[in-house]
Write a structure and sequence with these properties.
By secondary structure, the protein is α/β, with parallel strands linked by helices. The protein has 15 helices and 17 strands. The chain has two domains: 297 residues, Mur-like, catalytic domain (UDP-N-acetylmuramoyl-L-alanine:D-glutamate ligase); 128 residues, Mur ligase, C-terminal domain (Protein-Tyrosine Phosphatase, Chain A, Alpha-Beta Complex).
Length: 455
Amino acid sequence: MAVRASIQTALEAGNWLEGLINFERDPASTRARFDLTAIGALLKRLGDPHQGLSVLHVAGSKGKGSTCLMAEAILRAGGERVGTFTSPHLERWTERFRIDGAEVEGGELARAVETIRPHVETMQAEDPDGAPTFFDVTTAAALLLFSRMDLDRVILEVGLGGRLDSTNIVEPASTCVTQIELEHTAQLGHTRAAIAAEKAGILKPGVPVVMGRLEASAAEVVVARAQEVGAPCFRLGHEFDATALEPGFEGWDACPEGAVQGFLFTDTEGLERPMGLSVLGSHQIQNAALALAAVFQLPGWVGEDRGSEARAGLMEAHLPGRVEIVARNPVVLIDSAHTSESAAALGRVLETMPSTRRRFVLSMSREKSVEAVLAHLISPESEVWITRADAYRSLPVDELRAFCERVAPGCRIVCEEDPRAALSQARGGMEESDLLCCTGSVYLAGIAREVFQAP
C-alpha cells in the first residue's frame, strides 16, 4: 500500500479542502443540512477544541466581515490576543485564519488540516452522506488552530445563515446580527423575516446580542428570538446609536487625527464618544457601531479606559476588498459589493469621487439580483469590462452583458473571459482624472488585489 503524503503547505491544505462538498463553490448542490451532527462529531474526535474559548459570534447578510475585522482591531488595541475566522478569502487560504491581526502561517494551517484529515476520512467511510462538509472542516481547522494558541478572544463569522451554520457549534460570550437582506433565498427563505429567523439561530440563552438597523419584519423576528431564549438585546438606533459627524461641523474636531469619517457613538449606558474611521463608506459607520457594541458586551470590556482603546483600535482597522483604494491618479478602487444594498453603498461612495471617465470591471454570481446591483453602479456613460472571476459561480459574460445593456443602454462594453486580462485592459489608457472600480464579487476583488498588488 502506498504511503499517503502528509499535508505540509497551505496550498496542499487548500487543495484537500476543495475536494470536500463545498457550498461556497457549488450553490447548485442539493445536499441538505438539517443539524450540526457532523461538525459536533468531528470536534469531539479532536478533543472539543471549541470549548473554553471566549467567542464573539457574528451573523448577517452584509457587513459581518467588516464588523469582525473592526472588533478584532478594537480588542487588540485593548491588549488582547485575538483569533479571527472569516470567509471567503480574497487571495490566499491563510486569510481566513487570523492570529493577532495577521494571517496564520501556512505551516500552521497545514498541520491543523493534517490533524483533521484522518478523522474526516474515517467519517466519510462510515457515513458518506453524513460526513463533514468543506465548511465543517474549515471551521474545525480554525477552532483547532485557536485552541493551540494562547488567545484571550475568538471572533467567528457565520458562513451561511446561522442556525445550521458550522460555527453555531460554539457557546459564545457575545453575538451580533449585522444586516438582513434577500440573499441565498433557496437555502434561507424568500422573505427577510424567514432569513432573519435563520440568522437569529445563533442567539443563546443569557448571551447578549447586538443588532443593526433591520427592516421591521426582520427586527421583530430577532427580538422575539432574543426574548424566547432570554438573550439581552441591544438594537442600533434604540439601546445604542451612531451619528455621522461631518468635517467642519460641530463635533468633528473631537474625531481622531487622520480619520476620513467620524461618528458619535452612544453606548448602551448613554455615554457618548466621538470615534473615527480610516476607511471609506458611510455604511461602515453602522458596522463600526456594531463592533463597538458587541465588544462592550464581552466580559472585561467596561470602564472609561475601554472607550479610548476602542477609539484607537477602530482607526487601525483595515478592510481589504471593501471600498479599498489601491491606486490614485487615476483612482483604482476594489469592492466586494454583490447585493443591491451593498452596491447602493458603493454607489454613494463613487458619487463623492469626481472623475472624467468612470470605468468598471464586473463579474457577478449566478444567484444574485444582478439588475438591482447594476442599477446602483453603471450608467450609459460608463465603460464596462465584463469578465468571469469564478468558473463555478460567475455568470457567463454574454449573460452579464445582456443585463448591462438593459440597465445602461449605450454604455461601452468589452467582454473578456480572463479576469486578469480584463483588469489590465481596463487599467490601460486611463488618465489621471479617471476612476476604475472593480466589483461584483469577492472572487473578482481577490483577483484585482493580486493584479494591482494591494498591500
